[in-house]
Specification:
Radius of gyration: 22 Å
Largest sheet: 6 strands, parallel
Order of helices and strands: EHEHHHEHEHEHEEHEHEHHHEHEHHH
Shape: elongated
Strand content: 5-15%
Strand order of the largest sheet: 2-1-3-4-5-6
Length: 328
């Protein structure tokens, strides 16, 4: 099996998450990396793609009769991890390739369903793994040939740190997109009560500028606010409620999560690992938690062990390989 990796200079804010999963997969001896040797090769393949598109060659090369013969046990099986549909990363490998092709896709939101469907048809994707259970179910109804399965996000726990509870210096942390309605309820009073509260001051501004600062900041935090995107950004996520890596990063750093647990997360853990927000007493709830923080340590430790034992990228890769073995 070949793991498709994009050009090293094509970076985005999600690169660390993709790298975590790719590095976990590459620990398997049966998997080897496939990436452009240089930009000249990439440009040649891109040119072939454009010529083929104009001449409709790709349709001729990818008749249904030919690709139905694929097996996910083939040595040429291509596996690709994507944060959104990244054709720049995929095109050099996927256009003229007749091997079995699989994609693990983050961020499959309702507004993108048609694009995802078109992408899978265009590149003759055999297996599509989606991080959101609702999206996986809907996309399977739309795709006839492609097999769609739900595989939640995971984490490499070894990439994160945690501190002794007595040495944590950040009381409340909100990373990335804020839940504005909740933020407005707590920001003023938390500061008045003398609590430290870190959050995105301006849209797009990073709370921690470097990866090292990010890891240390999580390790130093007592409470991590985690709310799914369908609440904070419904215009993007619609009604798709899903567990993101932010929940797992917080647990790996031994933070107590206050926010909202997606239904699929409760299903995965077998219990609710999140302290649900009380919007009617937002500040009093946080004040009570921080004053009695030791009462929540058993839950924090339980969450940490659950992530370690069930929700790493190694576990996700094992699930994917199991699906390949069942379907092939």
């Amino acid at each position: 099996m070949k793991l498709v990796q994009g050009p090293i200079d094509h970076l985005n804010v999600s690169t660390d998450t993709i790298n975590e999963f790719e590095n976990s997969i590459l620990l398997n001896t049966e998997v080897r990396a496939a990436k452009p040797a240089n930009h000249i090769i990439y440009k040649i393949k891109t040119l072939l793609y454009r010529i083929g598109k104009k001449l409709n060659v790709s349709t001729i090369l990818h008749t249904k009769k030919s690709y139905l013969k694929h097996s996910c046990k083939d040595t040429g099986h291509l596996f690709t991890i994507m944060m959104g549909l990244d054709e720049y990363k995929y095109r050099p490998f996927g256009v003229l390739n007749r091997n079995c092709k699989s994609i693990y896709l983050f961020d499959a939101w309702p507004n993108d369903y048609q694009k995802i469907q078109d992408f899978c048809i265009k590149y003759k994707i055999d297996y599509l793994f989606i991080t959101a259970s609702q999206s996986a179910y809907i996309l399977q109804q739309k795709l006839d040939y492609t097999k769609v399965r739900w595989i939640p996000e995971g984490i490499d726990v070894n990439q994160y740190k945690y501190q002794n509870y007595s040495t944590k210096t950040i009381d409340v942390l909100a990373l990335g997109r804020k839940y504005d309605a909740y933020h407005q309820l707590i920001v003023g009073e938390l500061l008045e009560r003398g609590y430290s509260y870190l959050y995105e001051k301006q849209k797009g501004e990073l709370v921690f500028p470097t990866r090292e600062d990010f890891i240390q900041g999580l390790a130093s935090s007592k409470i991590s606010i985690c709310v799914p995107s369908n609440i904070t950004h419904p215009e993007r996520s619609g009604d798709v409620e899903t567990m993101t890596i932010r929940y797992l990063q917080s647990m790996a750093s031994k933070c107590l999560i206050v926010g909202h647990a997606p239904a699929e997360m409760i299903q995965l853990f077998g219990y609710n690992p999140v302290i649900e927000i009380d919007m009617t007493n937002a500040v009093l709830q946080l004040d009570n938690i921080l004053k009695n923080y030791s009462d929540y340590i058993p839950l924090i430790e339980k969450n940490y062990l659950m992530v370690l034992e069930n929700h790493t990228w190694n576990h996700r890769w094992s699930q994917i390989k199991s699906i390949f073995n069942q379907l092939c």
